């Protein structure tokens, strides 16, 4: 499986397109610039099967309806943040974007760690709250990839000063769900460069002494 990392929007949120050999793909966190994302999908001749959301802050959801309507595909989100999609206060678009980002309800609500089969992708879902109450990570074991949203970054962790954030909860999520993955697992974060589990275990200053 291949992935494309596409920074979009004013704060360069990473949208990911993960594609199998048969060109079926899933779109993770389409945050902005929907036309740009569609052009890439068309250029690569990909066939989107679903939109997967790691959480619902405005910079991760801005292009959801554009992609959903173009390809008539379902949206997956954790149940704790379903209403955040249409609430500009919860999704922080009023505070940081100066605009009201309002997205229609998701098609599928996630709840609890579980195995997902979406478009032929075998995905392990982990609840990784802390940055937000419905933050999740999508682990593609066959390819050694995990999409973590804003839980974990190269040399850093997600902020926890936003609505319903919890520093203690985030650290617990990282240590009990993410750092237990194989050390060679490639981490695809919501901002910045990719990293690995081993790299963060060895050098991330926010994880020392937990």
Supply the CATH architecture. 4-Layer Sandwich
Strand order of the largest sheet: 1-2-3-4-5-6
Stated plainly, the CATH topology is called: Metallo-beta-lactamase, Chain A
| Helix/strand structural class | alpha/beta
Q: What attributes does this structure have?
A:
alpha/beta; 30% strand; six-stranded mixed β-sheet; Metallo-beta-lactamase, Chain A; 210 residues; 5 helices; globular
Quick summary of this structure?
This is Glyoxylase-like metal-dependent hydrolase (Beta-lactamase superfamily II). The chain is built from five helices and 14 strands.
What report would you give on this structure?
It comes from Bacillus benzoevorans. One of its GO terms (molecular function) is metal ion binding. By secondary structure, the chain is an alpha/beta fold. It has a single domain, classed as 4-Layer Sandwich (Metallo-beta-lactamase, Chain A). It contains 5 helices and 14 strands. A 6-stranded mixed beta sheet has the order 1-2-3-4-5-6, with helices on one face. The protein has a 6-stranded mixed beta sheet with strand order 7-8-9-10-13-14. The radius of gyration is 16 Å and the shape is globular. It starts with a strand and ends in a 7-residue tail after the last helix. The model has no long low-confidence stretch (mean pLDDT 97).
What's the structural blueprint in terms of helices and strands?
Layout: E1 2-8, E2 13-19, E3 24-28, H1 34-43, E4 47-52, H2 64-71, E5 75-78, H3 93-97, E6 108-110, E7 114-118, E8 121-127, E9 136-140, E10 145-149, E11 152-153, E12 156-157, H4 167-178, E13 186-189, E14 195-196, H5 197-203
Parallel strand pairs: 3-4, 4-5, 5-6, 10-13
Antiparallel strand pairs: 1-2, 2-3, 7-8, 8-9, 9-10, 11-12, 13-14
């Amino acid at each position: 499986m291949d992935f494309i990392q596409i920074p979009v929007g004013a704060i360069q949120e990473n949208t990911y397109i993960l594609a199998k050999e048969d060109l079926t793909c899933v779109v993770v966190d389409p945050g902005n610039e929907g036309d740009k994302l569609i052009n890439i999908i068309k250029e690569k001749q990909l066939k989107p099967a679903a939109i997967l959301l790691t959480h619902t802050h405005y910079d991760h959801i801005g292009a959801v309806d554009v992609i959903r309507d173009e390809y008539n595909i379902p949206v997956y989100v954790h149940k704790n943040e379903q209403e955040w999609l249409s609430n500009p206060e919860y999704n922080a678009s009023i505070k940081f974007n100066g605009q009201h980002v309002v997205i229609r309800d998701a098609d599928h609500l996630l709840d609890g760690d579980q195995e997902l089969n979406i478009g032929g992708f075998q995905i392990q879902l982990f609840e990784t709250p802390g940055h937000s109450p419905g933050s999740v990570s999508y682990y593609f074991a066959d390819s050694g990839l995990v999409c973590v949203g804003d839980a974990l970054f190269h040399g850093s962790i997600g902020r926890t000063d936003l609505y319903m954030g919890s520093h203690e909860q985030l650290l617990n999520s990282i240590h009990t769900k993410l750092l237990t993955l194989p050390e060679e697992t490639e981490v695809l974060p919501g901002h910045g460069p990719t990293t690995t589990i081993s790299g963060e275990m060895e050098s991330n200053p926010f994880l020392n002494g937990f």
